[in-house]
Amino acid sequence: MKKASLSIYFILLFTVFSFNSFSQKTTNVVGTVTDEKGETLLGVNIKVKGVSKGTITDLNGKFNISMPGLSTILVFSYIGYETREEKVDFTKPMLIVLKEESKTLNEVMVIGYQDVRKKDLTGSVGKANLTDMLKAPVASFDQALAGRVAGVNVSSSEGTPGGTMNIVIRGANSITQDNSPLYVIDGFPVEDPSVGASINPNDIESIDVLKDASATAIYGARGANGVIIITTKKGAVGAPKVTYDGSYGVQRVIHKIPMMNAYEFVRLQYEIDPTTVTAATGYLGTYNGKTYTLDDYRNIKQFNWQDMVLQDAPQQNHSVSLTGGTSDVRYNASVSYYDQDGVVIRSNFNRIQGRLSTAIRQKNLSINLSTNYSQSTTTGNSPSQQASSGMYNLFYSVWGYRPVTQPGVDINTLLDNSTDPGVDPLNDYRFNPILSLNNEYRKNVTTNNQYNGSVEYEFIKGLKLKVSGGYTLNSLRAETFNNSKTRYGSPASIDHVNATLETAERKTWLNENILTYQTTINNNHSFNVMLGMTSQASNYNDYSMKTNNIPNESLGMAGMSQGTPILDYSTLTDWSMLSYLGRINYNYKSKYYFTASLRADGSSKFPVENRWGYFPSTSIAWNFMDETFMKPLNSVIKSGKLRLSWGQTGNNRVGEYDYFAQLQALQAAQGNYTGTGDLITGIYPFNNVVSTVGTIPSNLSNSALKWETTGQTNAGIDLSFLNDRINFTFDWYNKITSDLLLRATLPISSGFGSAMKNIGKVQNNGIEFTLNTVNVKTKRFSWSTNFNISFNKNKVLELTENQLSMLTNGYFDQNFTASNYIAKIGYPIGMMYGYIYQGTYKVSDFDFNGSTYTLKSGIPHYTSENNTQPGFPKYADLNHDGVIDSNDQTIIGRGDPIHTGGFTNNFEYAGFDLSIFFQWSYGANILNANRLMFEGFGKKKELNQFASYANRWTFDNQNSDIPVVSNSSSNGLFSSRVIEDGSYLRLKTVSLGYSLNQRILKTLKISKAHFYVSAQNLLTWTNYSGYDPEVSIRNTALTPGLDFSSYPRAVSMNVGVNVGF
Amino acid sequence: MKSIKFISIITIALLACWSCSDFLDKTPHTLTPETYFNTDTELQLFLTGVYSPLMQEHFYGNHYVVEDAGGDDLSFYQRSTPSSGMICNNANSSNAYITTFWRVLYDGINRANMLLENADNNPSIALATRNRVKAEALFLRSFYYFNLVQGWGDVPLHLTSTQSVNGLSISRTPKQVIYDQIIKDIISSIPNLLASNALTYTGAVTQSAAEGILARIYLFRAGENNRDAAVGLPLTNSDDSIKAYFTHARDWALMVKTSGIHGLVKSYKTIFMDMCSDKYNSTGVLESIWEVEEAGARLTPTQAAGRIGNVIGFGATNDYSTVDAYKNLTGMANPGYSYKFIYASVKLFKMYEAEGDTARGNWNIANYEYTYASSAPNQVTGRLYYYGKLPTGLTSVEGFPCTQGTATAANTNKTRCAAKYRRECETITPKNKNYTPNNFPILRYSDILLMIAEADNELSSTPSNLAYECLDAVRLRAHISPMSGNGLTKDQFRDVLKNERAMEFCFEATRRWDLIRWGDFYTAMNGMQTYINSTEWGTNYKYAGPYYQVSKSYNYYPIPDMEISVNKAITQNNPGW
Predict the structure, then answer these.
(1) Antiparallel, parallel or unpaired: β A238-252 and A313-325
(2) In whole angstroms, what is the distance from residue B278 CA to residue B439 CA?
(3) Do B47 and B280 contact (CB within 8 A), yes or no?
(4) A427 and chain B: CB distance < 8 Å anywhere?
(5) How far apart are CA B229 and CA A957, in angstroms?
């Protein structure tokens, strides 16, 4: 107790001194503190060396301090600047210039339950450069994260406003389960990746990405996919400071898909069905005495549906924050509003958000309280996520709707009619896309409430107990209304006018108790020991109700209660987790480092026998440039560190009750299609009793279910050259994930489509380089560069029951249920699978008897098809058995990139700043399923096709390798024909800004004013023929890079301002 | 040092507070097998789940009838844009309808296995109840296996429910082994099943249904050599076994006949009108032995309606389900919507023509079209009979005028809609555009009679009196001339019988299997080109030509990719797939 009271005494003393400038014998010293550019610094800490006395600089960077006794040295310290000691000069005002400190070594890294300086780091942790990221006008931080941190692969499935990003750190471990990292927001672990959208990027202080096991193992069972730690801004000491950030921009789709024009369209219709086309009312019929010919369609009025559906869309962003406080109490508050219209008409994302955080410091006690509220609203139907049939997806109708009508039929009738009268509604679900978009009401409102609090008490110097608690409440309200002008609500639909309301709620609480002790023995041996336990529990409910046959559609959702209730859906789940953790950090003279940690996790998601998992890690590091024998090299290499680590982490991303056998009374018509997850109902209406709902087995039990474990080894080196002008980091890692939690496809003869199993093994290894350089730095001009590149090699090592491969269907339409992806031992997880396309059958492949073409003997044909004709698609007969069948399928593409990276250049000149950011992905393929339907798929009437299909095989165009118009079932096969190179280099963000200089700011009485113009996705270099190569509409590890009717990605141009008062 | 103690106490307290392990015990908010099977109701509800595959769209509710068992020489898919599957000669091993049919059958098998294993969990449930439930489950499991063998031949055999996620790769069991198993199981289930006259409805399995299906199984088994020869598989039947199978087929069918419970309804069409109008054997003559139940019009959360009448069947080409003035009407005022996917082939038409079979023929093949008002909602205004098809003296139905077309080409072409299932007869309102309460016939007494006749003929050198008696009963009901006394040879009798089955059971999802077991499938299908090329085949329907040009592989279904890709014990698909 003696020591503790002593320290309280000192603090009191300090307080007294700092607020009452008196002493026995003093002399005042005055001065100004500036940075290297001559700009004054506010709030610089000034201490008299050796005495507990100090002050801070005022708004103008000035200070005035009285020197006690014989003191003559002042110590100036300021976050982000090198601390400087200066002998006082009583004769004139002092001018102190603080140098920006080496960012790299003293940067604080947040590693989970602890912060360390980068110099002391032993694991592999990446820090995102927030300044650069915030130059992109985006809704959430994850949208600007791509290409920023080596080893962190960020992509979005498509261009939907407000869409969640897919983040994969160092490659996918898990084959069927979620590979997204764990998010830790101010200490609160969250598994749901959509959480990113609830935080205002301007509120973020830092983003740290834990990559190797030494860093992630402290998150145990949830650390295997990497951890992204987000720390939000705390208040800054000083007078209240208000900042406003605002931007406005416009987005546009630059690359549209060329479609066939009226002439080409009619020519195709003629090939499909000459009888109808040449009939009196056909395209080539007679109207007003004129018999139409093909050439009449060359210059006829025609529609381009893409132009009608895609718009120039505005976006805006406003954020106001207030911060200030004393060293006792600091506060930070912010509100923000983000609003983005989608480039597809009637789609929108907006978010209102507010945050308040307070930090209180009293003696040995520090208290942090924060709360965040956000409400995001997404409007509009997804163009790619209609599960049952691809033909329900938006762009099927946009592309497919015909551009022209028969003579005598006003083309505008196409706009008025909900469906095309020439289309058979049972085989083809095309629906007027303009009517759909204007009338389908879809609104998803996500509300996120987060309350965090922590109390930390320092018992004796270095010994702290931190007790924290948090509670989050996430809720979703999804409203759907289909009026009579929509596909699902039209008089021709089954349900007629209908509305659905779904509400879901997830409540999670967390308690953490962390004890740390930090001490240094003999000035050389530093120890930091941490012990803790945490418990977390969560429950989830989801209720949905629907009514059909709503009589008064003009009421919208308000009229929902008047309809017939048709579908009730309700779910309740819960899970809990209990963990113990410990870590020890030791270093000798900041030269030799050793870290070890262990976490034990217990989870309710696993059966009692396998409930607990133990996740150890260890690492060492050596700051070799601090060795005496390296000193001669110090002028070139300022610092250098070698790191080595090993550890195990886990993955628990399975359903709450997956290990139980379950039954269900299933009444809704699930399972109309062939997805393995679908269940077949239990209905059988004996004696015409409609409500007879039987009970069926719905889940297969697995009493052996357990954790998935990832072991990872990492070796790295950090080098800093030429006085920190060049910083270089290199990491090599090797991860092996075993006992994969896998939603395994079962032989359907078992009565189940799939079940959760622990099977298989996956390896990821790779290397990462990061290079930061300051190329030029003068008083007026500076140029710095950041470059990073990462290579990851993913490999399946083992599957279940000696399986050599596992096939999956990346589903988009019920006519394409063949397996199009394969996970094969020795190859990366998500390889594309199908036939090798060899072009079309040529006339020379046939014997011609004057009327019919018969395939020459020895030339293979597609399986049971016995009337192969010239122009049919030809696939490689890999096993040379004369028949092309499922045995001839092979790997035809890779879903994962070979390398990804980012390249940033920042320039500053006389108040101007320019940032140019490139991002790329190289080596991945895309399965462009659009081309399966829009480059010839059966004789589909009145379905427009891509412009490329105009060059299809015909007897007049026999060299073409695009298949002839036919109903051959071989048209719809997955083959190398539709596999495209998905590599791209993107000029992702360009931002040009200007900051007003101090003189003007002073006259305007504001502290900061920055104006900028910025562009997102300005240029993309790619060979991909679809909307955008960053696409993956069924984004799982098994089915990457599938494109069908994806939301186009927009280019956006923005202007903005950032003002501080 | 006090503080250290203080800290230790706090820490221990905090660590201890959750050490109680039940914090991690969660019970699912769902039903589990451990807590089920306790009451009569629960057994019955689980049994309902075992029946459920039958009514699904994957089976008798739609796709089995249209796409899977469709594609025979009596019908064709009436669209120039083909559907996918057996019916349009464009199937492959990833075909959705074949995959879901396979899946729904094995779902039923697993459900049955689970019920068989748990039915006796609670001994306080009456033994008779438990035995009946088990007998129905055992029969259904066998019926599902018969459908698998019929479609695919050798298939994986699961006789216990799936309990573990491992060891599910199971190889194909030879079909003869499966036949032995299911025949044994059905025979053992019969004593515990209800008699057909003990139920007022026909949707559940009874003794007659089991006996009749057993006869059907034996007949199909007897024909196995025919399809194996067609695709080049080794033959598994001997002459002796074939003879034994015909004997068993005849004897089990005779069990139904001699029970005296069943008979033939006087008017053929009544059977199908009953099925559409939610009646069961309304005349009191129990001809319908087993039907698949479909009910309602999808207006409630329980979606118990199917699509018989809508995809296969006869109704309006205009949809009145959204027109307030008509949607609650029945009969011709609101005849229900039909896509009319299935049309009758000229071959079938000519069979009826040759026999002068008008009562049955005019029911199975549409003999009229609806006429419509020219303005929306294009309400039905009457019936326009094809030339020569207007029944004498008929001037109106339900107040709607009946007229007859002239002898134009359009009226004389012989490709017309299959009209066995007529939505006119539906009584549920409002009629849904796409979903119907129409039941589907699995087994009728006329089938029992024709099975006796066929099996008996195969066992005799010349047709016996029994064979003539059974055949003629069916012919006389259809108002066509009896065969007895004509002195037919065995082969002649067989040919007559084959045509009789065609005329009696067309569109009842049996013809394809009859052709296959007779070894006629490939020749009958490819022989259809003669009809296509004839002037009697409507020029607008000639696209159907390629639908018939099947290869011999079509004697079997392909095993779905979805099975083969994960079931490593299946290494070979059926020949040609």
Answers:
(1) antiparallel
(2) 8
(3) no
(4) yes
(5) 44
Nearest chain A residue to B51 by CA: give it: A684
- Three state DSSP letters for B374-411: CCCCCCEEEEEECCCCCCCCCCEECCEEEEECCCCHHH
Query: Inter-chain contact A864–B432, Cβ cutoff 8 Å?
Result: no
Q: What angle do CA A746, A750, A752 make, to 5 degrees?
A: 60
What phi and psi, each to the nearest 5 degrees, are found at residue A1023? -100, 0
Q: How far is A710 from chain B (nearest CA, A)?
A: 23
Contact flag A697-B2 (C-beta cutoff 8 Å): no
The answer to whether the peptide bond before residue B377 is cis (omega within 30 degrees of 0) is: yes
Please tell me which of the candidates B162, B319, B562 has its beta carbon nearest to residue A752.
Answer: B162
- Torsion sign (Cα): B407, B410, B413, B414: negative
Task: State what percent of residues in chain B have pLDDT above 70.
Answer: 96
Find, among A512, A508, A513, the residue nearest to A575 by Cα: A508
Could you tell me the two tokens for B184? Answer: 């044994």
| DSSP 8-class letter at A297 | G
Tokens of B460: 């005799």
What percent of chain A has a predicted confidence (pLDDT) above 90?
A: 53
Peptide bond into B430 cis (omega under 30): yes
Element (H, E) at A335: strand A329-341
Closest CA to A619 of A714, A704, A703: A714
- A418 inside 8 A of chain B by CB: no
* DSSP of B175-220: HHHHHHHHHHHHHHHGGGSBPGGG-SSSSS-BHHHHHHHHHHHHHH
Q: Which residue of A has its CA nearest to B567?
A: A747
Contact criterion met (CB < 8 Å) for A673 and B96: yes
Question: Structure tokens of A1006?
Answer: 């504001």
Report the side by side order of strands in the sheet with A73-77: A54-56, A45-48, A73-77, A84-87
Taking the C-alpha atoms of residue B442 and residue B205, their distance in angstroms, rounded to an integer, is 11
Contacts of A680 (CB under 8 A, 6+ apart): A666, A670, A671, A696, B52, B53, B56, B58, B103, B104, B107
Q: What are phi and psi of B71, to 5 degrees?
A: 80, 55
pLDDT at B8: 59
Residues in A touching B6 (Cβ below 8 Å): 459
- pLDDT tens readout for residues A650-685: 988 888 898 999 998 877 654 344 444 567 888 999
Shortest alpha-carbon distance between residue A170 and chain B (Å): 29
The span from the CA of A861 to the CA of B576, in Å, is: 12
Q: At residue B223, does pLDDT exceed 70? A: yes
pTM: 0.79
The per-residue DSSP string of A170-205 comes to SS---SSS--PPEEEETTEEE--GGGGGGS-GGGEE
Question: Tokens representing A629?
Answer: 């024998």
Would you say A605 and A575 are in contact if contact means Cβ atoms under 8 Å apart?
yes
Residues A694, B47: C-beta atoms closer than 8 Å: yes
Query: How far apart are the C-alpha atoms of A724 and A638, rounded to whole Å?
Result: 7
Position A594 pLDDT exceeds 50: yes
Tell me what pLDDT residue A273 has: 87
Asked if A926 and A1029 count as a contact pair (C-beta separation under 8 A), the reply is: yes
Alpha-carbon gap, residue A110 to A230, rounded angstroms: 9
ipTM metric: 0.94
- Beta-bridged to residue A605, according to DSSP, are none
Interchain CB distance below 8 Å, A747 and B566: yes
* Res A972 pLDDT > 50: yes
Residue B159 has pLDDT above 80, yes or no: yes
Tokens found for residue A603: 């989870």
Nearest CA-CA distance, residue A993 and chain B, Å: 53
Instruction: Summarize pLDDT for B444-458 with one digit per residue, the tens.
Output: 999 999 999 999 999
